[in-house]
């Protein structure tokens, strides 16, 4: 995995401003700690930071393709193509000669062989910038499910781009401005595809290509989920899901560096770990290493092998499949360390997040990176197979909003607001959320003749895959790449996603439990205690010491009239919220912590990024 950055300017010469391009590229050093490079050409600069995973000795980037000694194309690429060896064989048969064993060269040669159609041949997770020297055009391409990020910032004569917003903001032409729509996006958690929060900045949408030329900028999809009839019976469906998942996991265990698996002991991560351990064993490679997270409670030593936490279930699964398990133990001191919290904010570039769960994930990945370079994860299974409670709540399914927002509105106690209570009305949050929901509903593919109940569940599944899952993928990418750890997600193999998306809900929940289809597919591979374990959320810390630190930070903010976030606050409401936090009992503070941590993150973000509020 890597980080990319660059600049196309048809009225300027980027090489004349090398310091700007170097600054952009350097911000991606965390994503690519092993090497870096910049290609300068007429009207273009392509920067790259490398995390060497395949062919560490070769595969340097940016990589060029030449014809009779003249450069025809230049590639800066982040990602992994899992079937690159088969693709390389096809290209070799077509006359291409390879100088490396890297998948990067396969991607570049695929473009020179098939042109714009090359993207349909790629099976993996990727984000890339490809400059066609003959056309003087730039292609920005993102993988089908949006596993790898890619941002761009149109300018008067071209575009700035990067794997993360920080790369773009390092250029003097870009500014960290926050307008009304950016505030709406932050506060409503609607996660609109293509929206980047910062004014003037965009994301390349999953499954899309952005083309930049002298004539301007265009964006087109090359892939989307489609509705197709499902003709397999239940037994055939179960068997096919098992085979497809097993193949996807096996393909994603290929690496020239140490590989491990994230393991909570739940159904999803256990399925991935079981198939990964099997794949390594069949290739006579060393046993799979698995890692989970545990928290040291106040006044007691942690019990990583305890049966009541993730680590205990993870250890059981590891023993069952012949893997090596280790639990990474965190405590309040680590989670509240200002340097860790600052690293999380810097990694995300935005104040959105999951409070201490982001910090713990970052620290977990930091510890894993000392042991491994690539990790497998179970992300995507809940969205694909229907694992969240919202899938099984009729009111949430029928709600005229995103299902996860319906449950949040009804089931979470609300305390006083730290931010100005007038903001939702002034910025029309409800209207914005309703408009984004209508857009999301309109994008759901329709299968003619499908029963109303099945169509409704197809809609819910599509909403989760296109609006909810991207938030989790962004979190996983940022926290892992902040420490140079590559995380792969086998459940999001696009062929598996296409197949399972079209499996009727009656099959996905055939025995009345969440993820019935997945349980049946992996029944022969997991111990019964893991197979029947109900879904549990990612763990959060419960330590009074951590809460005290948060309260102290809030008091400091409230005492600072120059705090940037005060522009978004109402003094009276904020004072009430502050008082509520100070007197809250530990069990009450759990419900106030999200708003409290959000306020602190927004203030830190506005300071760190010098955010300008604009109308």
From TrEMBL:
Pathway: Amino-acid biosynthesis; L-asparagine biosynthesis; L-asparagine from L-aspartate (L-Gln route): step 1/1. It comes from the Bacteria. It is an enzyme of class 6 (ligase). PROSITE patterns: GATASE_TYPE_2 (PS51278). InterPro entries: Asn_synth_AEB, Asn_synthase, ASN_synthetase/amidase, AsnB_N, GATase_2_dom, Ntn_hydrolases_N, Rossmann-like_a/b/a_fold. Keywords: Amino-acid biosynthesis, Asparagine biosynthesis, ATP-binding, Glutamine amidotransferase, Ligase, Nucleotide-binding. It catalyses: L-aspartate + L-glutamine + ATP + H2O = L-asparagine + L-glutamate + AMP + diphosphate + H(+). Residues 2-215 form the Glutamine amidotransferase type-2 domain. It holds the Pfam family Asn_synthase. GO terms for molecular function: asparagine synthase (glutamine-hydrolyzing) activity. Its EC number is 6.3.5.4. Belongs to the asparagine synthetase family. This is asparagine synthase (glutamine-hydrolyzing).
């Amino acid at each position: 995995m890597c980080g990319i950055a660059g600049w196309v300017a048809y009225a300027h010469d980027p090489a004349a401003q090398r310091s700007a391009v170097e600054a952009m590229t350097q911000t991606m050093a965390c994503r690519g700690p092993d090497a870096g490079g910049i290609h300068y050409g007429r009207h273009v600069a392509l920067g790259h930071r490398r995390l060497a995973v395949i062919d560490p000795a070769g595969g340097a980037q940016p990589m060029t393709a030449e014809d009779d000694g003249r450069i025809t194309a230049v590639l800066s690429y982040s990602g992994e193509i899992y079937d690159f060896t088969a693709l390389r064989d096809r290209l070799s048969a077509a006359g291409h000669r390879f100088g490396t064993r890297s998948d990067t060269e396969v991607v570049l040669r695929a473009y020179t062989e098939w042109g714009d159609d090359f993207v349909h041949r790629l099976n993996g997770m990727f984000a890339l910038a490809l400059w066609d020297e003959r056309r003087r055009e730039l292609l920005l391409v993102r993988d089908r499910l949006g596993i790898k990020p890619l941002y761009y910032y149109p300018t008067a004569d071209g575009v700035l781009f990067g794997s993360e917003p920080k790369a773009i903001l390092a250029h003097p032409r870009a500014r960290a401005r926050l307008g009304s729509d950016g505030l709406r996006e932050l506060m409503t958690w609607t996660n609109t595809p293509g929206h980047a929060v910062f004014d003037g900045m965009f994301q390349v949408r999953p499954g899309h290509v952005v083309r930049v030329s002298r004539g301007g900028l265009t964006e087109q999809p090359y892939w989307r989920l489609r509705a197709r009839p499902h003709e397999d019976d239940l037994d055939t469906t179960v068997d096919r899901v098992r085979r497809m998942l097993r193949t996807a996991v096996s393909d994603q265990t290929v690496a020239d560096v140490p590989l491990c698996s994230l393991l909570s002991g739940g159904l999803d991560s256990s399925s991935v770990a079981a198939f990964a351990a099997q794949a390594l064993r069949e290739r006579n490679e060393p046993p799979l290493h698995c890692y989970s997270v545990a928290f040291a409670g106040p006044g007691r030593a942690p019990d990583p092998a305890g049966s009541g936490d993730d680590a205990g279930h993870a250890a059981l699964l590891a023993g069952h499949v012949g893997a090596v398990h280790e639990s990474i133990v965190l405590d309040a001191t680590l989670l509240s360390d200002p340097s860790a919290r600052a690293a999380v904010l810097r990694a995300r570039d935005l104040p959105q997040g999951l409070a201490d769960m982001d910090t713990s994930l970052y620290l977990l990945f930091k510890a894993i990176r000392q042991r491994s370079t690539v990790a497998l994860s179970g992300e995507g299974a809940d969205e694909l197979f229907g694992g969240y409670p919202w899938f099984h709540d009729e009111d949430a399914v029928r709600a005229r909003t995103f299902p996860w927002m319906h449950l949040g509105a009804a089931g979470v106690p609300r305390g006083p607001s730290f931010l100005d209570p007038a903001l939702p009305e002034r910025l029309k949050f409800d209207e914005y959320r309703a408009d984004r929901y209508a857009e999301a509903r309109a994008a759901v593919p329709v299968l003619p003749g499908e029963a109303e109940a099945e169509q409704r569940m197809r809609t819910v599944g599509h909403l989760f895959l296109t609006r909810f899952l991207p938030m989790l993928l962004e979190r996983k990418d940022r926290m892992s790449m902040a420490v140079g750890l590559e995380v792969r997600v086998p459940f999001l193999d696009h062929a598996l996603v296409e197949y399972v998306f079209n499996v009727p809900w009656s099959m996905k929940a055939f025995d009345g439990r969440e993820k019935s289809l997945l349980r049946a597919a992996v029944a022969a591979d997991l111990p019964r205690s893991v197979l029947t374990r109900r879904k549990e959320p990612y763990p959060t810390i419960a330590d009074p010491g951590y809460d005290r630190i948060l309260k102290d930070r809030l008091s400091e903010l409230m005492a600072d009239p120059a705090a940037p976030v005060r522009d978004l606050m109402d003094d009276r409401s904020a004072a009430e919220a502050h008082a509520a936090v100070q007197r809250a009992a530990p069990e009450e503070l759990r419900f106030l912590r999200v708003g409290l941590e959000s306020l602190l993150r927004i203030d830190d973000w506005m300071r760190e990024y010098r955010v300008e509020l604009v109308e």
